[in-house]
Amino acid sequence: MPEPAVDVVLVGFGWTGAILAEALTAAGLSVLAFERGGWRTAPNDYALPFDQDELRYMWRHHLFQNVAHTTVTFRNSPDQQALPMRRLGSFLPGAGVGGGGVHWNGQVWRFLPSDFVARSHNLERYGAGVLNATEMTIQDYPVTYEELEPYYDRFDYLCGVSGKAGNLKGAIQAGGNPFEGPRSRDYPNPPLQMTYGPSLFGKAAADLGYHPFPHPAANMSRPYTNPLGVQLAQCTYCGFCEKFGCGNDSKSSPQTTILPVLMPRPNFTLRTYCEVMKVELTRDGKHATGVSYVDENGVLGFQPANIVILSAFMLENVRQLLISGIGTPYDPRTGTGTVGKNYSYQIVSSVNVFYDDKITNPFIGAGALGMIIDDFNGDNFDHTGLGFIGGGYLGALNTGARPIETHPVPDKTPKWGAGFKRAIADNYVKTVPIVTHGAVMSHRTNYLDLDPTWRDTLGRPLMRMTFDFTDNEHKMSDYLTDKAAQIGRAMGGREVKENKRSGHYDIAPYQTTHTTGGAIIGADPKTSAINRYLQSWDVPNVFVAGANAFPQNAGYNPMGTVAALTYHCAEAIIRDYVKSPGPLVQA
Amino acid sequence: MTSGRVTRRMTLGFGAIISAIAWLFPARAIAERIGRRLPWAANATDRPDRLDERPGYIFLSPAEAAFIEAAVARLIPNDQTGPGAIEAGVPRFIDRQLAGPYGAGDHFYLQPPFPRGQPTQGWQMEAPAQVYRAAIAAVDRWASAAYGRAFVALDASTQDRALKALEDGKANLGETDAKAFFALLLQNTIEGYFADPIYGGNRDMGAWHMIGFPGARYDLRPYVCRYGEPYALPPVGLTGRG
């Protein structure tokens, strides 16, 4: 039976899908979203108290993408044989309605104004040498911080972010982040209450002349009703945010901020357990006619649509472009082509401070609870002579200290046996973790393409990831780690242990889910896959929403910027595209 | 690629889709078209599975169980600091995990072949249950050659040396990657020791008592700003204090 055409099909229904569906249906468009997982809601899927189950959710991946069906292949460099990532580790994409928005921490950041002009800014300040020009492939965004500010603001208020502004319309505010771009107004909620460890960090950092402030958190410091009229409850600091669903509706997710308003709308339909096979194009490849999909009975279908928006996890967005034949695949030897170009990530490290006399109870936490300094992020400090560009934030975060995952032990502790057990027993409640969260620039040989060998269970090629950290990342991360240790030593503990990120990128240990790039935003179709409105240069009725848009990764968590770009896209579709379908930017 | 099996799969094309559906969607999955409502299902809560309470082991053979018991007793020994892995019930935890969907690799990509790969490429083995079955037999063959007897028959300090040889990848287990197997065994031991007791380990929440973790406490607000004070209440599990 042929399906009736809709105005917009969404491929994937996490944060970006929900944002787009809400904005586009409010403007009167008919929207149909495909989600390959099932419906998810707190009472059914992560109710209290069993949402606080570390084994099931974290270690058995209950809410994550199941790689049994689709995964990526991975290698560090183009001369290696890529092999499938057979289990999740380094990053943890979501699955099901809400996507990663169900199990994220709620860390909501804005990129610095200079992050949007990373190439021209660094060239101007440090000269061409620092860019290592033939290998580093960073680019400017075709949008500015100032243009995105209203959309950042919209996401902050949708999510009820708890925080303290550091820059209100250019006026620096005590207690906030003095390095951030100007905000049009303060956060909708005050900061979370601060636990002991982060408060010790904040005091030491301030004494050293740095500028500590509370981490902006989509965890509610008080009950909140967002602009759509959806209510969230005050966070109880149970310490099960990251990798878990919140059974208390205290963490922003599509479920707790958008879906109660969106789902009843007559011009919205959601199809669960339906996997989009690819975007279908007209014979000349210049126009999308809709998507083909398969449901759980193996029934193939075709859904016609006027606009197709890829709104899955960024790796799947890039794969859909390549499988569908939209755009030219990137070739790392020549630097030509755009789809798959500038895959990037995050580089993280940590420091542990151990005490004999202070009980810090690190299990009291919330996903984005902590004290941070931004003095060493982006270009907030002079990089002259340092041999790298970029930076990151660092700080003491209490996301919760689940006991299978969290074993802060002093240096030279054995990894098993009586000494290991003794060290955990002695230190678990007397430690403060400091994390560093660094940018990763884009490089010529870090990219995505379709694997020539390995397939998913539907017979489609897996995404092949070729990625490694370079000298720029290692130097930058070591610099951040040393600064973290300096603050750690000022916190008055018995011992400070540095856990630097050394060697090649390893896909097994968890680091962050901040995979970026591969279908990047830009001003020129020769060097970017999508324009400033996330519109494909090659097929103008296809849009791509996600962190795939980042030309390189900044030193912040991606969701705030992903959301801002997505709102910016939705507004352009409503304001311009619907009236005059076609390219919104002339190439 | 050395094996023809993957290549054959590639040529199956669209016909393979129907057989792939069982992989793609969980048993209870039903594709839905949802509109004009906010779905919620009564009595359909996705609770964790109940532990199989039958006595003894389900997956592990007697010889395999003897190895697991001996090995985990060295990984987390019993002493005055707190319970050992045996006292916490870790062998039963591992047995039940291997007998269930985790052991079968329900969240692992298991398309063959299985070349070893680089150290940075992660897990390149079959499902956990198969790994344990093959590896335990291989460890005993290796231990018999290296030390003259099976692992369980070695004294404690020799067992520690043998485990160290596995950990360092210095034990030759043939097809089995010794280092990867050790990492798996240690990870599962730590899981059983610290997971909620509903999974068969962490008996009486002994590990949580030992370190001061309060378990599934819903509301920690009263303690956020009580700097330096020990958390006063005993731990609770997902099924309460029992």
Task: Record keyword descriptors for this entry.
heterodimer; A: 587 residues; alpha+beta; 7-stranded mixed β-sheet; 6-stranded antiparallel β-sheet; B: 242 residues; mainly alpha; 9 helices; 42% helix; 1% strand; disordered N terminus
Description of the structure:
The complex is a heterodimer of chains A (587) and B (242). Chain A is of the alpha+beta class and 587 residues long. Helices cover 21% and strands 19% of the residues of chain A. Chain A has twelve helices and 23 strands. Chain A has helices spanning 15-26, 42-45, 54-59, 118-126, 145-159, 196-207, 254-257, 259-262, 314-324, 418-427, 471-489, 559-577, and strands spanning 6-11, 31-34, 72-75, 83-84, 167-168, 171-172, 213-214, 224-225, 231-232, 268-271, 275-281, 288-294, 300-310, 341-344, 347-354, 370-373, 392-397, 431-438, 447-455, 461-466, 495-499, 516-518, 542-544. Chain A is globular and about 70 Å long. The model of chain A has no long low-confidence stretch (mean pLDDT 97). Chain B has nine helices and one strand, in the order H-H-E-H-H-H-H-H-H-H. In chain B, helix 3 (62-75) packs across helix 7. At the A-B interface, helix 2, helix 3, strand 4, strand 10 and helix 10 of A face helix 1, helix 2, strand 1, helix 7 and helix 8 of B. Strand 10 (268-271) of chain A pairs antiparallel with strand 1 (33-34) of chain B, so a sheet runs across the interface.
Strand and helix layout:
The complex is a heterodimer of chains A (587) and B (242).
Chain A: E1 6-11, H1 15-26, E2 31-34, H2 42-45, H3 54-59, E3 72-75, E4 83-84, H4 118-126, H5 145-159, E5 167-168, E6 171-172, H6 196-207, E7 213-214, E8 224-225, E9 231-232, H7 254-257, H8 259-262, E10 268-271, E11 275-281, E12 288-294, E13 300-310, H9 314-324, E14 341-344, E15 347-354, E16 370-373, E17 392-397, H10 418-427, E18 431-438, E19 447-455, E20 461-466, H11 471-489, E21 495-499, E22 516-518, E23 542-544, H12 559-577
Parallel strand pairs in A: 1-2, 1-13, 2-10, 3-20, 13-23
Antiparallel strand pairs in A: 3-4, 5-6, 7-16, 8-9, 11-12, 12-13, 14-22, 15-18, 15-21, 16-17, 17-18, 19-20
Helix pairs in contact in A: 1-12, 5-12
Chain B: H1 4-12, H2 16-24, E1 33-34, H3 62-75, H4 85-88, H5 90-99, H6 128-147, H7 156-167, H8 178-194, H9 206-211
